[in-house]
Here is the input.
Amino acid sequence: MANLLVRDGSLRRVIEAAQAAPSLHNTQPWHFAVDDGGTLQVRADLDRALWVADPRARALYLSCGAALFNIRAAIRMNGFNPLVWPLPQPTFSPTVLAVVRAEPGRPPSLAEREMFHAIWRRHTDRRPFDSDPLPGPVRTALEEAAGFEFASLRLLSSRDAATVLTLASRAGAELARDAEHQAEMQDWVGTDSEQDGIPAAALPERARRRPAPVRDNDMAGAVPTIPRQSGDYEQFPLLAVLTTERDEPADWLRAGQAMQRVLLTATVHGLAASFLYQPIELTDMRGDQAPAWPWPEHPQMIFRLGYGHGAAAAPRRPVDEVLSRTTTAE
Ligand SMILES: Cc1cc2nc3c(=O)[nH]c(=O)nc-3n(C[C@H](O)[C@H](O)[C@H](O)COP(=O)(O)O)c2cc1C
Here is the structure.
């Protein structure tokens, strides 16, 4: 059976799946290079790094990890098995975050097919959610999704959620006072680009009750002239924190894959999600070890989960812009 990643049509579909991954401010900080033997490199695109907001490149690794998860899911969808070598090796440039090959495997299971189809239905939803509780089996599925990728998901009690929300809101207010951070954000938020950035239609509503469980102060606040309608967010938002035991680049890449498995699992179960990354972002900007965090593990992402009403899709670049072909491994 010919290698999946040397066939043009299937390769393009795999890259489209990778491109559908979430990334901080939809920067899409990735590039993919495939050689004629079907070895695919997932590379960091440093021209798309956020040098103010993401000085340690944590968000870049998380985003590329999510793209890597989608590549794995797309390879499985084709009945192949992904073989993944993560992180820099002496033979590759340090911007190569993972190398992937596809080997013939068994047909995809129903769960794997559902996961793949969810890639295209998932959009960050910053609007208010219905506050129906999550059924027990859905909570378990989300926790297991993180565990499969060697991370943990803490679904927070409303008391812990209130603590985290206060942290997020304070971090957002501090970031909103940082002129360099605001300037960088304005390049990406509320733009009318057809290829990247967060479109005005995907911005959060103006929360009637504070603190807002979405990224309002610094993100939507960076583009004050864009009109937004007011909304009533959940009184007790359901927040979840994705954590890892260690906090090195390899953990960020793994956490990115875990983040995407959690998000796609949520989508399969009819849930919507948004992110509250600002306390983690601020910690990295200040060079601190961890946010004022009540738990021993390292937080990598904070999600808000709930039943949404459909969200605007953010644009993506065309495949030819993110894919290059090489004859030998570079
Ligand atoms: C590491 C990371 C951090 C993010 N942080 C936030 C955030 O704090 N607030 C937010 O509303 N969206 C956040 N997002 C979501 C992105 O803005 C979103 O993925 C991107 O705009 C693409 O849109 P989509 O998810 O609808 O495809 C984050 C995504 C990633 C991967």
Summary: Residues 62 and 245 are 15 Å apart (CA to CA). Residues 22-26, 59, 62-63, 66, 123-124, 126, 198, 214-215, 274-278, 314 surround flavin mononucleotide (CB under 6 Å).
